[in-house]
Amino acid sequence: MSVESSSVCARCAAQGTSCCVSVEGVSGPPLTPADIERISTATGRAATEFVVEREVDLIEHLAWEQDDPATRGLVREGRVRSLARRGDECIFLSANGCELGSARPLLCQRFPFMRVNGVIDVKPGGFCLAVDEAADLPQLLTMLGTGRKQLQAIDEQLQRELTK
Ligand code: SF4
Ligand code: SF4
């Protein structure tokens, strides 16, 4: 969920298409090491209670980084860590939305955007009601309560956290 109280996100969640929900068995949002620390601090929970880890083969790894270069470094030694799900929902999704507030993973804060060659784009695949309804990128940014500067700052933070 890109923003915490966007009406389009509330409508999306109400119709069951929120980015916090997916087909059962699909991993939750990938995490940087600092995401895990922030979530542990915010919730008082050990990482083992909310992190799942899976293997990523080289083809998926390279395709991922080519499609979304800001995620370079998320896959380490062929493995990526993600938020666990309860059934088809993120374990931090409650009736009031995301329980994590400002400790949400960086990739949740940035959804549904990515940046290729410095140009902001929308992630291919998946469903996002805001993407469906927005006439263009400026309107999409406004609907999701974000902007180019905020997305740039998130990408820079991602790279700082992933190159440590
Ligand atoms: S951490 Fe929050 S925003 Fe991210 S998938 Fe889970 S409930 Fe949604
Ligand atoms: S999929 Fe898009 S519209 Fe739906 S909750 Fe996520 S960011 Fe909001």
Give Rg in angstroms: 15 Å
Number of helical segments with 4 or more residues: 7
The strand line-up of the biggest sheet is 1-2
Unique bound compounds: iron/sulfur cluster
Major sheet, described briefly?
2 strands, antiparallel
Distance N to C terminus? 26 Å
Instruction: Indicate how many domains the architecture comprises.
Output: 1
Low-confidence stretches: none
- Into which percent range does the helicity of residues fall? 25-40%
Task: Describe this protein's structure.
The protein has 164 residues and is of the alpha+beta class. The chain has one domain (7-162). The protein contains 7 helices and 8 strands; from the N terminus they run H-H-E-H-E-E-E-E-E-H-E-E-H-H-H. The chain has a two-stranded antiparallel ribbon. A hairpin with a 2-residue loop joins strand 7 and strand 8 (119-122). The chain is globular and about 40 Å long. It starts with 6 loop residues before the first helix and ends with a helix. The mean pLDDT is 89. It binds iron/sulfur cluster (2 copies). Residues 1-2, 8-9, 12-13, 17-19, 111-112, 128-130, 144 line the site of one iron/sulfur cluster.
